Amino acid sequence: MVKALLEILNPRLVTRNVIRKYPRAVSHARFPSRHLATGPYVAAGLKKESWKTWVYAIGAFGALSLGGYYYYWPRHTFPNSVAKILRRALWEESDKKDHDYQSALKYYLEALEECEKLSMDPVSDEYTGIELKIAEMYERLNMADNAHELYLEMLYRYFDALHTPGRVADDLRPHLIQKDLRILIKSLEMNKDVQVGKRNLLAHLLLAQEEILSRSPELKEYFDKRKERATNPFQGKPVGDRVNFESFVNEQNIKLNEESYMIVDMAKNSSAWEPFKEEFFTARDLYTAYCLSTKDIGSALSCKLTTVEWMVMADMPPGQILLSQANLGSLLYLQAETFESKIHQLNLQRENSLTNQQDDETTIRTLRQLHRNRDSCFEMATKCYGSIVAFSKKNKKLRFNAKELMDPSAAQAIALSIYGMGVINLHKRNLATAERLLNDSISMAEETGFQELLTEAHQELRKLELAKDSTPNISQT
């Protein structure tokens, strides 16, 4: 039975990478999977009752590490009266004054008051840059609530400005959206209410999404046609044929150079996503994690399905696309387990209660639909993992060069996909195949230092041994 729905693993801050999440899921199924990752970080565990822990290790793309949000200081010319106060604040903050953050805070607040006297635009880089320094001082003085309140105030101001017609010049909107998403990500580090965090993510993501689609009519038309599938991929019909996972990971989307190293396809036009595409996909991954923390696997799956497609079209780093699709496979497995749990509950209800014929027929129809959806999820998860494994076999240097790659996400995606296929085969009680795949994933995880996957794979192997002992007469081929 269900011991815990999922466990999200903490990401480690590194540059040039998207956040990584690695949850565990436990369902009533005999041998459940415990895996999900959405970025190239090495992670650590998190219990569902301490869901917010993972937020404290938020990472970001490119040079935009969390420190980038935290210590952001705009390099702009301030009015003389403001600059004079800021110099005093920086002096108090320096090591020559033994980092007197309390005094520095006083001067930063004074500088902000001076900006208000000068009627400075409250969403300008200068004004918000001072606010970020104030928030930093709050954090250094262990005044986290004050810092979080300031971040939220900035978010509301950005949101209002971007929603007010004519408030922000068209050529400045992308820059302001980038700042908005950065503050959003930073605010989530201190968020204590998962529902509030989820609502904020959704509102600001939709704002950025509207901007992207308004800048690219082709993108808008493309995703309008796919909206129905993305928002509700399961309607009781087999969906494996409608979602072609191979289209995400193939030679058209993932480019390799002559030495078989992955490269970005410079021929693609990703201007509609600039300059905030890294922040945008970081925030989408956070939304997926929040959906998981509230047990909303359907929304998490829908979000990730769209995210993988958008990453391909936005020409994100190839390794991140591979890993994002591996995570999609993990979400599909979680969804399959959810359907299986509902099947189990309905079967128990039929066994333990007396129902009339009409109610029983309704239950039977529901069970048939749940079985179709479950089977479709398993099929789609297998396709997700399988296309990554097939791609790596066709481009074998991806595996052998794993240690040389600055971005470990490709090797981790391959290892995670092999592991995922092993778990699916274990679930289906194809024990010999499961054992081979799990051992293969362990070998690759050892090569790349993927410690968390090692722990999970060894745990699944222990289950496999128990399965062998409990069912000695069942074929293991």
Q: Which runs of at least 5 residues are low in confidence (pLDDT < 50)?
A: 1-74, 235-245
Structural class: mainly alpha
Multimeric state:
single chain
Give the fraction of residues assigned to helices.
Answer: 55-70%
Strand order of the largest sheet: 1-2
Order of helical and strand elements: EEHHHHHHHHHEEHHHHHHHH
How many strand elements?
4
Task: Give the biggest beta sheet.
Answer: 2 strands, antiparallel
C-alpha Rg, in Å? 25 Å
- Strand content is under 5%
Q: Number of DSSP helices?
A: 17
C-alpha termini separation: 27 Å
Mean pLDDT over all positions: 76
Shape: elongated
Please outline the helices and strands.
Elements (H helix, E strand, L loop, with lengths): L5 E2 L16 E2 L40 H5 L9 H14 L7 H17 L7 H16 L3 H20 L9 H17 L4 H22 L1 H9 L1 H5 L23 E2 L5 E2 L13 H17 L3 H17 L4 H35 L4 H38 L2 H4 L8 H19 L3 H18 L2 H20 L7
Antiparallel strand pairs: 1-2, 3-4
Helix pairs in contact: 2-3, 3-4, 4-5, 5-6, 6-7, 6-10, 7-8, 7-10, 10-11, 11-12, 12-13, 12-15, 13-15, 15-16, 15-17, 16-17
GO molecular function, one term: misfolded protein binding
Keywords: Membrane, Transmembrane, Transmembrane helix
GO biological process, one term: mitochondrial protein quality control
